[in-house]
Amino acid sequence: MTDSAHTAQAGTPAPTGQSAKPAQSGKSGKSAPTAFRASLLTFHGDPAHAPHGAVFHEDGLLIVEDGRVVAADAYAALAARLAPGTPVEDRRGKLIVPGFIDTHIHYPQTDMIASPAPGLLPWLDTYTFPTERRFADANHARDTASFFVDELLACGTTTALVYCTVHKASADALFAESDARNLRMVAGKVLMDRHCPEFLRDTAQSGYDDSAELIGRWHKRGRQMYALTPRFAPTSTEAQLEACGALAKLHPDVFIQSHVAENTDEVKWVADLFPGHRSYLDVYDHYGLLRRRAVYGHCIYLDDEDRKRMAQTGAVASHCPTSNLFLGSGLFDFDKADSAGMPIALATDVGGGTSFSMLQTMNEAHKVARLGGHHLTATRMFWLATAGAAEALDLGDQVGTLKTGAEADFVVLDPQATPLLARRTARPESLEELLFAFALLGDDRAVYETYAAGKRVHRRGDARGHVPGHAKIAA
Ligand code: GUN
Ligand code: ZN
């Protein structure tokens, strides 16, 4: 199907077949309203608990102005409200959903995705640390950040919680790239002052100073937000965790991100390094690092007490199924986490994760839950990857939703993206069946367009930035 746009005429828009430019919101300037006619999906609550949590309009209209959602409803209910002359982008046959939120990803690991190792700790030593060393070079950091952001947008991810490297310039590069495209991103420089190569170490003091400087430069500048990022307990001394806790207290609205209980060898290591603590999670608790906007990758080897603590503090479990399967880390217990009431969100964890796509992440999340005897519906997974994540991150009024006033970050999904997807979605019996097909069969090919703050930032098939040169393959 080809796109067309028409303009609203006295409340009864009629297609003209003309093509039109997408909404141009500009970063700060005002823009005229634009409307999108397509199927729409948004959420008013967790579909597992709220009977009408998922709101779907087969023939819907989304109106966007100045980078924000003005209204999203059935076409029949909204069309008459369109001001005459408003361009209407015709995306009938496609599905608009809020932009995806990836709650845990490492941008410096883009070039080492799909590097196999017999488990997490050898993988870190063999691939991760040498790869992250290259980010001492600010040009390399800028080049990778640009590719990384292209890749996120191609997959429909408009917000991510991003790990940079220990180098301050790596965070500057990521924020500058995101700011230039007006994306809502959360990122932070890694804190790491032991148990890693000398070339990747900071100190408790320099890590504190660099993080404080980056908060001053980037936190709440445009749509950027900072995350204090102690890599994981084994690579931080008590002094560094203490300094991180102090900074967290000084800045109650910054994010905190780290890893916890991902791998059995790692869990044993933490028990040796921090003998006085009840559990791995308790180490972070001790230093004041469990709270709202604290996001912990993996959470596989938690016990009931830990889960209760996550629920009490509002800290978020970031479930990374493609990574957990690839590194053989283990299976996240979705049922126990859910029953404990702890906030849960989904993430890719690239480069431990094997795909940038949140659709592929849903695919594997469904299977991991299935192995634990839990049926994770596609409707719930779409919620977890959009409004559920936004609410868990305290960003529920800004992103992950098509509600009035929200930032207009959204994705146009194409059920005809591949011949198989087209066949499978030809006669869906329910919304769940349609979403399930997207989750199980979809990837970046299913993302037709991505919009951030009302402006198109990706269109499938359009030329992208740059292609890196090929290095010689060592024999
Ligand atoms: N634990 C500490 N660092 C990392 C990392 O880079 N990736 C993953 N998956 N786990 C970690
Ligand atoms: Zn990770």
Automatic annotation (TrEMBL):
Renumbered residue ranges of the record's region Disordered: 1-32
Pathway in which the depicted protein is active: Purine metabolism; guanine degradation; xanthine from guanine: step 1/1
Domain Amidohydrolase-related residue range list: 96-457
Top-level taxon of the source organism: Bacteria
Pfam families hit by this protein: Amidohydro_1 (PF01979)
One GO process term, biological-process aspect: guanine catabolic process
Keyword annotations from UniProtKB, A to Z: Hydrolase, Metal-binding, Zinc
Catalyzed reactions per annotation: guanine + H2O + H(+) = xanthine + NH4(+)
Cited Gene3D superfamilies: Metal-dependent hydrolases, Urease, subunit C, domain 1
Gene Ontology cellular-component annotations: cytosol
Composition-biased stretches (Polar residues): 1-28
Protein family per UniProt: Belongs to the metallo-dependent hydrolases superfamily. ATZ/TRZ family.
Purpose of the protein: Catalyzes the hydrolytic deamination of guanine, producing xanthine and ammonia.
The protein, known as: Guanine deaminase
Species the sequence originates in: Paraburkholderia antibiotica
Gene responsible for this protein: guaD
